[in-house]
Structure formats: structure tokens, C-alpha cells
Amino acid sequence: MSLEDKYKKKNIDIQLRVRREMEYVQKGQSNKNYAQLSNILEELEKMLNSKNLKLCYPRMIVDSWDFTDELGLELLDLAELYKRWK
Q: Looking at the whole model, is its pTM more than 0.90?
């Protein structure tokens, strides 16, 4: 599997996880910030087809999420994969 294929598959998988987390927030089952998740999802969608975006979401995660948050760690890993794909 090429780096591009790996990156795109991981991006799509994480988009699904972010959408699920947004649903949990709406149901009161998660204390994450809905607006942050929405912004992250929008950025992930743009990243899927563009190699030259300056990513904002990693700083948001590092600054305000728990450093052991599983979704946050996966999002940061995706940002690193994106840098290599560029």
C-alpha cells in the first residue's frame, strides 16, 4: 500500500471517529468541544485532497486535549503522516 493510500484510508477512518464523537457530544456522552470537533472534521475533509494545507488542529489538540486522549493521539499521528505525504 502506498503512503498516499495509507494516508487517505486513515483520514477517512478518523473522519468517521470524529463524526461519532460529535454524536456522543450531542447525546451528552462526551465532554469534548463540539465546535472543535467540527473544525477538525472540516480540516480532515480538506486534507484528503490537498497536499498544501497548513494544519491548525494539531495545535488545538496539544493545547486543550488530555495528552492521553486516544482520538487526539490518532489525529496527531495523522498530521505526521500528512506531512510525510506532502
A: yes
